[in-house]
Specification:
single chain, 2% strand, mainly alpha, 256 residues, two-stranded antiparallel sheet, 11 helices
């Protein structure tokens, strides 16, 4: 959850800058951009509406993540005025005021934006959210094996993870790369609020795969395999490469 929040904190202000430039420079894809951003906002709303998830998530993480999602919702309303209002669900939450503050921080700096300022925004967002001590900048070339807490989660669950990875490989075999990425992306967004992989009987549903329920570990395996198939070089932050490689060997045997 800490890794997911820090990832969201890093990406949120950068994404707002990128989406603004796309909107200004490529008017021909405006409709597609609106559909994509609307889908992201709708998926984020699931976190606000899931009361059980709110109980499971530490309050500092839930509040910060919700405020970042609220800022994104305000940004979409700013980019596409009068088309929709994704902020309505946030107005009754404590995160609304902070979300508005984050959006205004971004807007004030973007109006006089210079290359590289987006990284100063990350620091501004972190300070506003009280997360300045959670992050530090490091050189891009510095070795990073990923967050150790995430990588130690699956000890004793390797067999289950291998089975779920194999199921994901078989499932994704019938899907286009675009659909595979959508599944992985939906799980990644859900993971910003935390995915409980250890509570027995805890299940989740996905909009991209309707009519099924998945355990937390199954979701993480789906995301890991999906990202491996669409971007093999990406570090998913999950210690699932061992089960994935075993599942891949079994899958190759299945194809033969």
């Amino acid at each position: 959850m800490v890794h997911g929040l820090c990832h969201q904190l890093y990406n949120c202000p950068l994404d707002l800058c990128v989406e603004t430039r796309v909107h200004d420079r490529f008017p021909g894809i405006e409709a597609s951009q609106f559909v994509n951003l609307s889908r992201i906002c709708r998926e984020s709303l699931r976190v606000v509406e899931d009361k059980e998830l709110q109980k499971l998530t530490p309050s500092v993480i839930f509040s910060a993540s919700t405020a970042l999602n609220c800022a994104t919702a305000m940004f979409v309303g700013h980019l596409f005025p009068s088309r929709t209002d994704f902020t309505r669900a946030y107005r009754s939450t404590p995160a609304f005021g902070m979300g508005a503050r984050l959006f205004e921080l971004w807007k004030a700096r973007y109006d006089r934006h210079m290359p590289g300022d987006e990284y100063l925004l990350v620091d501004s967002f972190a300070e506003a959210l009280g997360l300045a001590d959670w992050i530090e900048w490091s050189a891009e070339s510095a070795p990073d094996s990923g967050p150790e807490p995430m990588r130690s989660k699956f000890v004793g669950k390797e067999d289950d993870a291998t089975m779920f990875c194999l199921d994901a490989l078989k499932r994704f075999e019938k899907m286009s790369p675009g659909v595979v990425f959508e599944v992985a992306r939906e799980i990644a967004v859900l993971g910003m609020g935390g995915i409980d992989h250890s509570t027995p009987g805890k299940t989740y549903e996905l909009k991209s795969i309707q009519g099924e329920k998945f355990t937390g570990l199954q979701l993480l395996c789906l995301m890991h395999v999906g990202l491996r198939k669409t971007d093999p070089a990406m570090d998913t932050g999950l210690d699932l490469d061992g089960p994935y490689k075993m599942a891949l060997e079994a899958f190759k045997g299945h194809l033969q």
